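Lab meeting notes turned into a lecture example. A postdoc, R.K., suggested we walk through two folding results consecutively so the class can see how the record format repeats. The first protein's sequence and structure tokens come next.
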Amino acid sequence: MPHFAEKKLLPYTPEQLFLLVSDVAKYPDFLPWCTGARVYNRKDGQFDADVIIGFKMFSERFTSRVRYQEFSRVDVDYIKGPMKRLYNHWNFTPEGEHSCIVDFEVEFEFSSRMLNQLIGGLFGEACKKMVHAFEDRAAEIYGPPSS
């Protein structure tokens, strides 16, 4: 099962990064291959989201349940779509006054063995590109990191 994990220190507060990651409805504005998003069933500490991922002729909708602990953690559990399994989480740990350590992890498995083999090889690079898109979005919203 393809798995990707990254931990890095970013010059933004846990609150800033939590708000960025948990704002799923804005993903089509900056996230590669995300062509649509809808958030619904909001409850205390969770919501459901549909995200449409498109690349060339491929377009699929994923439904997930997003659970969170405000300003510290976001967990995403797969509900339905073309996958057999999809899970990811974000942890935001304060590090100093204006920065935090972001711990991101994702793993997935397609229902089709062929898709697993085809996409598995590209998975790490796609994840790096998505994490970089979140960093770029943080700089756009909160300002570039100070040197």
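The second example is placed directly after the first for contrast:
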Amino acid sequence: MDLKGERILPVDRDTAWRALNDPERLRGAIPGCETIERTGDNEYRVVLLAALGPVRSKFRGKLRLEDVVPPERYTLRFDGEGGAAGFVKGSAAVTLFDAGDGAATRLAYTVGAQVGGRIAQLGSRLIDSAALKL
């Protein structure tokens, strides 16, 4: 699965960068995210309750930040297990750009992910739709 997109955030780039690096704010912004706990430098443990069509499962995994260039970009790497539902592995390259007069920020992302197990049987359209919500 590959996704690419952009969003305009109504805050300056430094504010957007701080929010993208605040585990508590991210937990509140990610649907189904139960916990994000720092386990080391740029490493986190994540628990996410996900509903992909008829499959609902709790995914437990590790999130790692790589290629960090504040306040411009980083790459997120995720590796998670959902028990009988399967697994998810992926990465997301996130880049921030000043938009307009600097009072807004353009967030660009490119996501690549692999899924396996029961969730892989759901089909790419359903998985892509759920991924866009996250």
